[in-house]
Amino acid sequence: CTSNGLRTATFNFYDDDGNLTSSNVQKCVAENNRLLSKERFDSEGNSESSTIYTYSKDFDNSDNPSRTAIAYNGSNFVSKTVTEYQKGGEIPVRESVYDENNIRRKLSQDKNSDGDFDNIQEFNEKSQLVLESSDADNDGLIDKKIAYEYDETGHIIKRLEDDNNDNVYNKITQFNYEDGTYKGMKVSVVQNP
């Protein structure tokens, strides 16, 4: 982007024999050099993926501006969203990954801008949280995992906590239901050897 207005750039990629393998098309607004979208095409011109960028209101003058990239697969289903929040010198990132049915299957967050995700949540095909992993001390390693189990009606029936990521559950909470009505819970604490 070198002048005012909407600019489009096309980048073509070729194999060793000089055959076109794919193309990238990028659009941006020149006055503030913001990328608006990019799209990838195969050699026949079919869209393989596209990404649309959105910016928070008053992005350039805000104390906490944000930018979101929404990636689509060739079938126009959302495959991933990434939101960056600028906070001082840090840029925390939030990333969501979707399956072919457009259901979010994973949400990852890097809250301290160190490049490692501090919190990862995984979801099943019913959008129920099934696993949560966290890095509490920001050393880049998962410290704690919590797994969730559900009954056929969607009620949470078990919460399993692994406090030090050794694949041994330290605390198990069972939730009891009778005819769909919550009737209490039982907590079991397991001491590690």
General description of the model:
The structure is a single chain. This protein has no helices and 14 strands. By secondary structure, the chain is mainly β. Strands 1-2-3-4-5-6-7-8-9-10-11-12-13-14 form a 14-stranded antiparallel sheet, with no helix packed on it. The radius of gyration is 22 Å and the shape is elongated. The model has no long low-confidence stretch (mean pLDDT 76).
Task: State the gist of this model.
With about 190 residues, the protein is mainly beta. It contains no helices and 14 strands. A hairpin with a 4-residue loop joins strand 2 and strand 3.
What's the helix-strand series? EEEEEEEEEEEEEE
* Unreliable stretches: none
What does the average pLDDT come to? Answer: 76
| Individual helix count | 0
How many DSSP E strands?
14
Largest sheet: 14 strands, antiparallel
The shape, in one word, is elongated
Helix-residue proportion: under 10%
Distance between the termini: 61 Å
Query: Which strands sit side by side, in order, in the main sheet?
Result: 1-2-3-4-5-6-7-8-9-10-11-12-13-14
> What Rg is obtained from the alpha carbons, in whole angstroms?
22 Å
Class per helix and strand makeup: mainly beta
- Tell me the strand percentage band: over 45%
